[in-house]
Structure formats: structure tokens, C-alpha cells
Amino acid sequence: MGKLRDKKPALILVDIQKGFLDDAYWGGNRNNKDAEKICARLLEKWRELELPVFHVRHSSANPDSRLHESHPGFQFSDEVLPHSGESVITKKVNSAFIGTDLKEKLDAQHIQTLVIAGITTNHCVSTTARMAGNFGYETYVISDATAAFDRIGINGEKYDSELIHLTALANLNGEFATVWDSGKLLLELQ
Fold it and tell me: Which pLDDT tens digit goes with each residue over 142-157?
């Protein structure tokens, strides 16, 4: 026990923004409605242990998007507002590594272990985790601190958000990251 904490893991909170509260805009039927609350618990633990935190937000180029900087949805959700001294990374694509200085900041702090949570499981969380794994970081994705929405398939069929969520996690686990739930993570931090 305590092994994970000794690695000085960084918590990467991906796109936990108010815009994702507009369920219908993103496809509806969001699973895991408590993801933000669980992310808040993780953030509280990271702050208690004085471990590094990175808040990532998406800045859409589409002025009609809920994540455009002119829209109230661009703001971080109230549960996970950054504190002074915590890094804020603004990205324009799915990966938190592309077009940002995230990797440089991680490397400057000699961080090699990442814990990733946020929204959505199958988009920005997955893309960021895949790149983290490809860069060689020891990467963890927290299953109950992520969420997805229903998706429409290439033939018009509807895929349930829980299926999307679980499939995205299955694609990451053992290949790009280790998938844990928050209970397992918090136990490993003791």
C-alpha cells in the first residue's frame, strides 16, 4: 500500500465543464450522473495528499458549441473548480496533449504516473489516455469518474451510453491504461 502515492501521480481532470450538463445536446441518456461528484472526491484527496493536479478544459472553435469560450458551458463545473497554483490546460482538440504544454509540464515535474478522469469516456478521456500510454506514462483511468452519452451508429442505430462507456474502457484497459474504479484508486493511495 502507498506504492501509488509514492509515484507522485498527477490527477488529470478532463473537460469537467458545465456544458456537459446539457444532456440532449451531446446525445442524451448520459450514464454515470455522479461522475462530477466522484471527480470532486478524487480532487479533494489529491489536494489532501499535496499531489499534482491538472484541470483540462475544451475550447470549441464552434461558436454554437456548449464548450465555446463565449458560452457559460465553457466554465468548469462547480465541484472541481481549480485552486490557485493548480495547472489549467485549455485544449482545442480531443487530446489534452495536442496543442498544449501538458507534456512539458508533466516532464518538468518528473511526473511519470497519470490518473485520468472526466468527460467523455469515449472522446477526450480516451484520446488523452491513449496518448498518455503511447508517451510511456503509467496511466490509470477511473471508470466511475467518467461518463458517456448515447451515440448514433453509422447505419442510424442507437448505442446506449452505458455500452459506449464500457466499450471505451475495455478498449483502454491493458493496452493504453489500467482501468480502476474510484474505490480501488483511493485504497491504493493509502
Answer: 999 999 999 999 999 9
